[in-house]
């Protein structure tokens, strides 16, 4: 019988009551008395020199409070980058300045040039139109390989070229990899593009800056996945505001997917302008602005080689990737194609020799940074595509080719610097094959063929590194922040409690899942536990939510704090029960003395802590509040096996997904319903990348896909119906190094699904006699049709 | 995007040449043009209202004439700023050759757009630019030629294609200069 509370129960999401009834409190719902509105004048050109900017006429327009330009930000810090990558020669990456408002030059369409603060948004917009602006347009670099050619236009004049870094991993292994490839019985090579994406959270970004003249305190309300990180970056590096005078609040946030991790110019501007204007300043992004100012995702061009011996054992993997950074380094951009990508190139396989080369390139495009999966989808996509191609070339079963190369012994140290603690890749493969009913596929294919359709079955196995991560390790790798998480557990006098977590919930369901853990530990009802997050004023310093880290790192911090509470309450209970502390047991909210019928309720112990009339004051302090910081000793390594069946119409190239199954190993699962929802959503995003989504620039750096007319978001009818969508997480090898044994589930769907879909399409085409080895994402009808017709 | 086309105009190259240099002709012929001032030497300033797909804007810009080889060829270069709508830039290489009694006017047009126009209108911009060029040179032909035998055929098309703008009066320029 399924549990009805605690760890493993599918408790309904309490936050949905407000989200689904219009009672949420999002950043745009926050209005500060007397606030002004800002409209940003953004660059229309991808690259140019500002030759004239005259705001006098605009400043005289009705309602204008003040107009800011780059000149107002001279002496103010630029937006900092949070990760420094060292290249294969031991040189640190190039790190050009990233101004809040353009300084003399613009480097991508959408870069803010000036900001008009006015009484109303309409007045701000009208005045922005009246700014006299002349930009001398310069040639733009858009294509990454062209950007690296000798004599290419430079995005940053002060840099020697457009190469941010040339990273080799592991450089010492390069020779061994070359040798293994030279000696291989077979080498499969594949060149592919991991298409550029726009995250498109339902809620666009918003920032409200406020300043209290009496206290000198600044407050920023913002759509962030990590308010403490924004406070640190903006306070220390941009505006010079000490943290105790700066509060950052990220209230209800309507989806992030990575794009709300980063510190953006608009946040710094609103905080700065509120003080300069002595008035709160609010900015709400339009959807058009989101397309050209939210950090984009992916955008890798990769060549991968897979070497096999005569028995089809993988002997080496070598990759060369061009990774687009855009015009400036977004907060964590350098880490995505390197430490979140290169370290994953072993996948689920015991390949002994691996070498990864990544060239990060500046172009005149919007900055590119982490998007759901961040580096791991790119790694999985190339590896799982090249394995399928090798299976086709060798005429072997793609399932068996994977199985014979699986890692089966744990812990396993890969040649790319990480150590997998646990996993069972055959178990997830078995589960996936059962769910997809591989044995029945031939009959389903025959049915499709009767209708004139080509049916394909695609599979994919993947590994993630989640729960990011040990601070000392990431520090060695160039992170400029720690990656612990924190929690304060405050027990009230009557026994209810509040957890103030450094994690941030923007759709993940922390307010429901975290109390389940506390309920399990103490034995009190979940509704006795409240979760507070998203406000630097009332949560301990935390690093926020990304990299599927909330339950693994933030949940573990909460467990550690709760353990301290339980230890203290046991001391109090021992005093009240006149027993030895070692004999006290806590179960179902009751403290009892082992082997006796003496007990005291949780609530009575909590009351004693706050009304300490009968209390061991000489040994312990009154009150019940504990904080813990948890820094994990390793990443977690969720893994999975996915399968997809598609039908392709060879007449039109239209692909429909007939069936999609996922078998994930997330370790222990706190709330199965929430986990399944996360995987469903991730798969939908992955299918979006595989079939629909593509961010397109023209050769002049104009962004062409900047609305939902041209950027195809997945819709309900692009996805398989619920009955054809099976999400399984029954294969569980618990993580060995965190107290909950959890691995994290937020990104799996987006990592596992794109190669599954493309492998399925290629299987369908080849079944129809079309010898097609590769289709780039998105596999739109025109691309599939062209592949069929060029091939035959 | 690039366009190449030609028109036969029933007037001598000298008359056609003079028409190209006349801001009043240009104003009549540029679709959506509300103001056109200036001279061939100094360049022209123009204000044009146009709707591209979902984006309607007033473009303020300049037109300059260069590489002038009277009465054979010249280059028109224009740039218009549409405020929040973005910008449009373009150029036309125009060649005039005598053909029978009249002139063969050939042109190569290159146009590009930026900002919101590119973001929202990129799929329709090629068709839009072609329509703009067709209208311009149709208007120009009509303005120069005057009411010939085919005037009756042209009139409804010109009126229809010009939307809410009044169709230019046929042949007024030729009448004015001859």
TrEMBL record, chain A:
Pfam families: Ald_Xan_dh_C (PF01315), MoCoBD_1 (PF02738), MoCoBD_2 (PF20256). Keywords: Molybdenum, Oxidoreductase. Residues 21-139 form the Aldehyde oxidase/xanthine dehydrogenase a/b hammerhead domain. SUPFAM superfamilies: CO dehydrogenase molybdoprotein N-domain-like, Molybdenum cofactor-binding domain. InterPro entries: Ald_Oxase/Xan_DH_a/b, Ald_Oxase/Xan_DH_a/b_sf, Ald_Oxase/xanthine_DH-like, AldOxase/xan_DH_MoCoBD1, AldOxase/xan_DH_MoCoBD2, AldOxase/xan_DH_Mopterin-bd_sf. One of its GO terms (molecular function) is iron ion binding. Gene3D superfamilies: Aldehyde oxidase/xanthine dehydrogenase, a/b hammerhead, Aldehyde oxidase/xanthine dehydrogenase, molybdopterin binding domain. This is Xanthine dehydrogenase, molybdenum binding subunit apoprotein. It comes from Marinovum algicola. The lineage of its organism: Bacteria, Pseudomonadati, Pseudomonadota, Alphaproteobacteria, Rhodobacterales.
TrEMBL record, chain B:
Pfam families: COXG (PF06240). InterPro entries: CO_DH_gsu (IPR010419), START-like_dom_sf (IPR023393). Residues 145-178 are annotated as: Disordered. Gene3D superfamilies: 3.30.530.20. Residues 147-156 have a biased composition (Acidic residues). It comes from the Bacteria. This is Carbon monoxide dehydrogenase G protein. It comes from Marinovum algicola.
């Amino acid at each position: 019988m399924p549990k009805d509370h605690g760890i493993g129960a599918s408790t309904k999401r309490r936050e949905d009551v407000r989200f689904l009834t219009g009672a949420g409190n999002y950043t745009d719902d926050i209005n500060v008395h007397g606030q002004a509105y800002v409209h940003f004048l953004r660059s229309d050109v991808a690259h140019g020199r500002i030759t004239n900017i005259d705001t006098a006429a605009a400043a005289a327009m009705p309602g204008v409070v003040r107009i800011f330009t780059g000149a107002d930000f001279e002496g103010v810090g630029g937006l900092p980058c949070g990760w420094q990558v060292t290249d294969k020669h031991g040189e640190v990456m190039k790190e050009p300045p990233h101004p809040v408002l353009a300084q003399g030059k613009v480097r991508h369409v959408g870069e803010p040039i000036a900001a008009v603060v006015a009484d109303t948004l309409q007045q701000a917009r009208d005045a922005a139109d009246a700014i006299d602006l002349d930009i001398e347009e310069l040639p733009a670099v858009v294509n990454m390989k062209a950007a690296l050619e000798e004599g290419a236009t430079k995005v940053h004049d002060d840099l020697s070229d457009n190469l941010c870094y040339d990273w080799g991993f592991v450089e010492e292994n390069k020779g061994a990899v070359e040798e293994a490839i030279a000696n291989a019985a077979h080498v499969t090579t594949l060149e592919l593009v991991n298409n550029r994406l726009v995250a498109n959270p339902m809620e666009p970004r918003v920032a409200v800056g406020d300043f209290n003249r009496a206290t000198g305190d600044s407050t920023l309300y913002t759509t962030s996945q990590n308010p403490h990180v924004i406070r640190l970056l903006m306070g220390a590096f941009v505006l010079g505001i000490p943290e105790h005078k700066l509060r950052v609040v990220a209230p209800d946030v309507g989806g992030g997917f990575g794009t709300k991790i980063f510190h953006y110019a608009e946040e710094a501007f609103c905080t700065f302008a509120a003080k300069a204007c002595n008035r709160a300043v609010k900015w709400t992004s339009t959807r058009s602005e989101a397309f050209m100012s939210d950090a984009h995702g992916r955008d890798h061009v990769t060549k991968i080689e897979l070497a096999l011996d005569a028995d089809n054992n993988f002997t080496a993997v070598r990759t060369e990737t061009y990774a687009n950074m855009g015009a400036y380094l977004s907060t964590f951009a350098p880490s995505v194609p390197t430490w979140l990508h290169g370290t994953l190139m072993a996948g689920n396989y015991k390949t002994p020799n691996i070498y990864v080369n990544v060239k990060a390139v500046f172009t005149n495009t919007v900055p590119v940074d982490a998007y759901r999966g961040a580096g791991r989808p790119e790694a999985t996509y190339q590896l799982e595509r090249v394995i399928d191609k090798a299976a086709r070339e060798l005429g072997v079963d793609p399932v068996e080719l994977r199985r014979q190369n699986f890692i089966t012994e744990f812990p396993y140290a890969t040649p790319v610097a990480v150590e997998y603690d646990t996993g069972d890749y055959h178990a997830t493969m078995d589960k996936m094959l059962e769910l997809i009913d591989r044995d029945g596929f031939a009959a389903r294919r025959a049915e499709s063929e009767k209708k004139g359709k080509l049916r394909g079955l695609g599979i994919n196995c993947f590994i993630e590194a989640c729960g990011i991560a040990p601070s000392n390790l990431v520090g060695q790798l160039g992170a400029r922040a720690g990656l612990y998480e924190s929690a304060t557990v405050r027990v009230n006098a009557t026994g209810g409690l509040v957890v103030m977590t450094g994690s941030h919930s923007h759709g993940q369901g922390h307010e429901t899942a975290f109390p389940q853990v506390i309920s399990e530990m103490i034995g009190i009802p979940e509704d006795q536990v409240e979760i507070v997050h998203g406000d630097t004023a009332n949560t301990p310093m935390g690093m926020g939510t990304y990299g599927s880290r909330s339950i693994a790192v933030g949940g573990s911090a909460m467990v550690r704090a709760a353990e301290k509470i339980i230890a203290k309450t046991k001391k109090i209970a021992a005093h009240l029960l006149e027993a030895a502390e070692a004999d006290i047991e806590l179960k179902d909210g009751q403290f009892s003395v082992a082997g006796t019928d003496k007990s005291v309720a949780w609530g009575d112990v909590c009351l004693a802590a706050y009304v300490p009339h009968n209390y061991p004051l000489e040994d312990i302090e009154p009150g019940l509040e504990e904080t813990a910081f948890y820094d994990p000793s390793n990443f977690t390594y969720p893994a999975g096996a996915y399968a997809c069946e598609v039908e392709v119409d060879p007449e039109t190239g239209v692909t429909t997904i007939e069936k999609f199954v996922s078998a994930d190993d997330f370790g222990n699962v706190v709330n199965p319903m929430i986990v399944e929802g996360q995987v469903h959503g991730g798969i939908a995003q992955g299918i979006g990348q595989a079939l629909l989504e593509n961010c397109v620039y023209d050769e002049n750096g104009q962004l062409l896909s900047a609305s939902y007319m041209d950027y195809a978001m997945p819709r309900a009818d692009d996805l398989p119906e619920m009955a054809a969508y099976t999400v399984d997480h029954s294969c569980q090898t618990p993580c060995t190094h965190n107290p909950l044994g959890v691995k994290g589930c937020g990104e799996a769907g987006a990592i596992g699904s794109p190669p599954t879909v493309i492998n399925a399409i290629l299987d369908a085409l080849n079944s129809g006699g079309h010898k097609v080895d590769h289709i780039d994402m998105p596999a739109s009808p025109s691309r599939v049709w062209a592949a069929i017709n060029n091939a035959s | 995007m690039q366009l190449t086309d030609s028109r036969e105009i029933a007037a001598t190259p000298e008359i056609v040449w003079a028409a190209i240099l006349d801001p009043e002709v240009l104003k009549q012929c540029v679709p959506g043009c509300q103001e056109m001032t200036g001279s061939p030497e100094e360049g022209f300033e123009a204000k044009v209202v146009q709707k591209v797909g979902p984006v309607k804007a007033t473009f303020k810009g300049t037109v300059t004439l260069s590489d002038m080889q009277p009465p054979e060829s010249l280059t028109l270069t224009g740039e218009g700023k549409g405020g929040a709508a973005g910008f449009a830039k373009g150029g036309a290489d125009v060649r005039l050759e005598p053909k029978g009694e009249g002139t063969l006017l050939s042109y190569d047009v290159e146009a590009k757009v930026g900002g919101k126009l590119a973001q929202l209108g990129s799929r329709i911009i090629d068709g839009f630019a072609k329509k703009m060029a067709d209208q311009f040179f149709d208007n120009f032909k009509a303005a120069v030629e005057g009411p010939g035998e085919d005037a009756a055929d042209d009139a409804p098309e010109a009126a229809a294609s010009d939307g809410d703008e009044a169709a230019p009066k046929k042949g007024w320029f030729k009448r004015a200069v001859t």
